[in-house]
TrEMBL record:
This is Glutathione-dependent peroxiredoxin. The keyword Zinc does not apply. The active site is at C55 (cysteine sulfenic acid (-soh) intermediate). Its EC number is 1.11.1.27.
Length: 168
C-alpha cells in the first residue's frame, strides 16, 4: 500500500472535457499522473463511486466548498479519483458543480487503486472493485500525508482535515 514518502504511481487516469483547450479535445482525455503532479501541491481524494450517497452529499461538496481556502493554503489542484469511467465522472462533475475547482479523474480499470493498494472489493454488493475512501496531500508527485478511512466511515478524508494538514 502507498505510504507517506512514496511517489504516485506511473499510471494514466481519464478526464472528461466539455470544451477544447490546453491540448485537450472534447471528451475523455488521458492524464499521466506523474506528469500532472510534477511541481505541484495537490489535494487528492479517492472514494468508492460517483453518485453514491456519502460521496455526493459530503465528500465532493466539502472540497468544492473549501476550494478557496485550500488554494490559499498552497494547494495548486484538487483531484477526485474514482473507479468510474470518464463519462460518468464528467456527468458527476456537472451535478456537483465542481467546475474548475475539482478535477474529476476516472480510474475506470482501477489501475490507480491497484497500484496504490487502495482497493475496496465491493463485488459481494454488486459494485465490483472500487477505491477505498482516502485523502492525501501530494507535493511534486510524492505523498506528504495519507488519511485512510475505515470501511463505511467518513471521518479523516474530508476537506477540513486536508486543509489543516496543508496549513500544517
Amino acid at each position: 500500500m502507498i505510504k507517506v514518502g512514496d511517489a504516485l504511481p506511473d499510471v494514466k487516469l481519464q478526464e472528461y472535457s466539455e470544451v477544447e483547450g490546453n491540448g485537450c479535445s472534447i471528451g475523455p482525455n488521458p492524464v499521466d499522473v506523474r506528469q500532472a503532479a510534477a511541481g505541484k501541491t495537490i489535494a487528492v481524494f479517492g472514494l468508492p463511486g460517483a453518485f453514491t450517497p456519502t460521496c455526493s452529499a459530503k465528500h465532493v461538496p466539502g472540497y468544492v466548498e473549501k476550494f478557496d481556502q485550500l488554494r490559499s493554503a498552497g494547494i495548486d489542484e484538487i483531484w477526485c479519483i474514482s473507479v468510474n469511467d470518464a463519462f460518468v465522472m464528467g456527468a458527476w462533475a456537472r451535478d456537483q458543480k465542481a467546475g474548475d475547482k475539482v478535477r474529476m479523474l476516472a480510474d475506470g480499470s482501477a489501475e490507480f487503486a491497484r497500484a496504490t493498494g487502495l482497493v475496496l472489493d465491493l463485488t459481494a454488493r454488486g459494485m465490483g472493485v472500487r477505491s477505498t475512501r482516502y485523502s492525501m496531500l501530494v507535493r511534486d508527485g510524492k505523498v506528504v500525508t495519507l488519511n485512510l478511512e475505515a470501511p463505511g466511515k467518513f471521518e479523516v478524508s474530508d476537506a477540513d482535515t486536508l486543509l489543516a494538514q496543508a496549513r500544517g
